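Lecture notes, part 5. Sequence design as translation. It can be helpful to think of inverse folding as translation between two languages: the language of shapes and the language of residues. The source text, in C-alpha cells, appears below.
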C-alpha cells in the first residue's frame, strides 16, 4: 500500500517524497483526508504511441464521439454568406479600434506636473506649495 501524506506534509517534504518515488514507491496526497493526487514513478519501458494507436485506444475506451456528418457532406462546416468587401471593412474597423484604445497615462502625468509647477509659480512664498483657492 502506498504511503499517504496530507497536502501540508507533502509540501513540507516534497524533496523526500520525490526521492521515495525515484526508488519505486508510490505516494498518495490527501486533502482533508480524501485522496487527491498520486505520485508514482514513470514507467521507462513505455514507448511513444503513434496517432493511430492513440485513436484506437481512445475508441476502445469509449473516449471518442463519432462525427455527425462526414467532411465531404454539404453543411458539414457551415460558412456564412460571402459579402463583397467584408475583409477590408473588418481590417479597417480593427485598425481604427486599436488606434482609439491606446492608453494615455503618460500625458496625464505630464498635465499633473504642469499644474503643480504653475501652483508653485503662483505661490507668494518661495519654496512652499499651496493649493490654489477656488
Amino acid at each position: 500500500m502506498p504511503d499517504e501524506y496530507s497536502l501540508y506534509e507533502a509540501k513540507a517534504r516534497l524533496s523526500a517524497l520525490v526521492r521515495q518515488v525515484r526508488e519505486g514507491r508510490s505516494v498518495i496526497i490527501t486533502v482533508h483526508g480524501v485522496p487527491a493526487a498520486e505520485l508514482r514513478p514513470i514507467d521507462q519501458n513505455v514507448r511513444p504511441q503513434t496517432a493511430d494507436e492513440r485513436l484506437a485506444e481512445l475508441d476502445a475506451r469509449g473516449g471518442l464521439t463519432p462525427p455527425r456528418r462526414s467532411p465531404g457532406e454539404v453543411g458539414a462546416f457551415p460558412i456564412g454568406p460571402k459579402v463583397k468587401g467584408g475583409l477590408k471593412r473588418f481590417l479597417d474597423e480593427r485598425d481604427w479600434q486599436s488606434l482609439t484604445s491606446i492608453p494615455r497615462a503618460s500625458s496625464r502625468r505630464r498635465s499633473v506636473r504642469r499644474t503643480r509647477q504653475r501652483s508653485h509659480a503662483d505661490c507668494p512664498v518661495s519654496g512652499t506649495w499651496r493649493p490654489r483657492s477656488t
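The translated text above is only one of many valid answers, since several sequences can fold into similar shapes. The chain has a mean pLDDT of 77.
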